[in-house]
Amino acid sequence: xxxxxxxxxHSLAYRQPIFNLLIRPFSITxxxxxxxxxxxxxxxxxxxxxxxxxxxxxNKYTIGQEHPKGVKVPKSIPExxxxxxxxxxxxxxxxxxxxxxxxxxxxxSSKFLTKNLRAHLPNIQxxxxxxxILNKKIKTRVSTRVLRTLTKEGGLDxxxxxxKSARIKTxxxxxxxxxxxxxxxxxxDERGYFQFENKLKPIQHITKDGRKFISSKEExxxxxxxxxxxxSYYPIKQSQMERQYSWLSYDEIVNKLDDCNVDLTRFTV
Amino acid sequence: xxxxxxxxxxSNHSVTPQKNNRVxxxxxxxxxxxxxxxxxxxxxxxxxxxxxxGCLDYHELKVAFRSLGFDLSKKEVLDIIxxxxxxxxxxxxxxxxxxxxxxxxxxxDPIEEIRRAFKLFxxxxxxxxxxxxxxxxxxxxxxxxxxxxxQAMIDEFDFDEDGESTKNRFMRDISKYTxxxxxxxxxxxxxxxxxxxxxxxxxxxxRSKQKTQFEAGIIxxxxxxxxxxxxxxxxxxxxxxxxxxDTVALSNITSQKLLPKTFWPExxxxxxxxxxxxxxxxxxxxxxxxxxDEKINYIVADEIVLKDKYYDERYKxxxxxxxxxxxxxxxxxxxxxxxxxxxxxxxxxxxxxxEKTFEFQSIGKSPIPSDCLNELRNPYSxxxxxxxxxxxxxxxxxxxxxxxKEQKIWKLKQEEKPKKELxxxxxxxxxxxxxxxxxxxxxxxxxxxxxxxxxxxxLRNRDFENTMKKINGNNL
Lengths: 269, 476
Fold this sequence. Notes:
Chain A is an alpha+beta fold. Among the domains of chain A are: 91-105 and 117-190, CATH 2.30.170; 199-267, no CATH class. Helices cover 33% and strands 17% of the residues of chain A. In chain A, helix 6 runs parallel beside helix 8 (250-259). The longest helix of chain A is centred in the last third of the chain and has 20 residues, at 172-191. Chain A starts with a helix and ends in a 10-residue tail after the last helix. Chain B is of the alpha+beta class. In chain B, the strands form four sheets. A six-stranded antiparallel β-sheet of chain B has the order 8-5-4-3-9-10, with no helix packed on it. Chain B has a three-stranded antiparallel β-sheet with strand order 11-12-13, with no helix packed on it. In chain B, strands 1-2 form a two-stranded antiparallel sheet. In chain B, helix 1 crosses helix 5. The longest helix of chain B is centred in the C-terminal third of the chain and has 17 residues, at 427-443. Residues 1-25 and 158-167 of chain B have low confidence and may be disordered. At the A-B interface, helix 5 and helix 7 of A face helix 13 of B. Chain A: InterPro entries: Ribosomal_bL28, Ribosomal_bL28/bL31-like_sf, Ribosomal_bL28_sf.
């Protein structure tokens, strides 16, 4: 009988998948969700469902599409990828590694059973954590729980680069940004460096035909603008240029410059 | 519009009586003055002698001088009065007036005279006479003519039809007043208007009720039979149809009006003018002229009807045909237009004027170049379909999180896996499944279960349908 009820509640819970319910009135922290599988019940890993998640626009827009109603175009291209689990409650967790820990409430009771609301704040410490990939220490506020996880995982990099969905949900906005930086650095490392006057300089891009570019996209764009301006019968405004070409990928810019027969050897190694 | 000329007059001559010459010239006046001029002086004196006592006071004298074309200052006028004033009555008699004016007329220069007459009206020195100028002069003369009357005067001589500021937004527009207020104003104005012009001008029709001459069915050059009023039974040629008043002016039905010299049209020689009466359209009937055996017959149409349009070469217009009502086989043709301008060496040939130099807008072809369209359109129109450009898309989509090593490996593995393909079942397999199913169904004995299974087979299975669609789609 009892078992049936559990199954019932469980199935109800699955009717409304928790991932889709982005805005929830209360947090669910300690319930274990059961997944019925062949050969018995397997308990899913415990994870935090954060309260009041900021909804993000996951639509992929295409060029030439009609301007969607009610969508505001940001002023600039965002620096970091959008994070699905950014909370709008206890916002300090967006500025440190809190591991999904949030403020809790309870009632304190006196000797005479007078009840007062009190808060339980997570145990937060300031710490500088060494990142092997970035080769520098990162000074943040970390919860002691995360410090424990860090030692288990074997470092900040391993903690942030784990692919499990629970980790991505609990690492918070700050962790998500750090993860982006780490992955970018890894990409850079893959591309390699070159020696320039007793200094290591990063190779910005490697094209398919093997050319290694040392200058950034922003340094190549003026060349392209110049070519297009020369090719046009009418003067083209800078803003118009930027609207048309500034967002192009490195490869596309190089291809366009190649089509114009621009000598790019001084930008390559 | 212009009375005499358009060039601006700068000379400022004023003829003042000179004491020394006057006595000597007394005899010359009688000889040199034309009969016309004598009559003129007499008329002017009679006209401005309001109280009829045979004398003019200062104000009357000044206006009388003005009407004769002499613009004298206050001091000069007072001097003249003083000279002939024997009994301190401050009045001037007709004899003395005749003497002074006669002297001045002899002394004046004909061209100068024309200039002065013009200048009299062109108070603001614009080089042309506007309604405003005319109003000021009429006010000076003490003849409070209505604006409509003044405008009629200007229109009479407005040959180049520039209308000279006929409408001013600061001007009093009587047509906007209420009916009772309007009547009161017109009444007040008529008290001070010239006696011969009192109740002369009919009421103006509102714009919405005005008809063109073709709509009204009567036009310049037509013959009209007067069916009502004083002149009943007369037949006359129409001089003009006034759309504003809905009246006609007829050739031989006129009344004599007194006009100050300043308002005289070209060729006028006396203060008395034959002014055509305003005869309402309802009082006249259109008449057709017919010549039978050198005998002229008139056919008077009680009512007329206007039917189907045709292009008239004489008027260069599409106009309706005019028939007698209830006798619609009888057409009254439109008369020949009176003032047809003849071509001369400077006029542009007709085919050049009528040449089509532009294209009409059509659905197929727009007259506006397509490149120009965007500039003409409203960039903020709510009907404009806005489309996302590359920069906007990259801003909206943002950057993507790079994949980790594990993710890359997983993705490669996924790509390596063969893709699931939906293939239709082969005949062998179909047979095998059918056999198994048949065996199983034959074993069933319970009729309820059979019924249930039959019912189940009839139910619609969306998933099955979709898969079948995919399979067939792949085959196709």
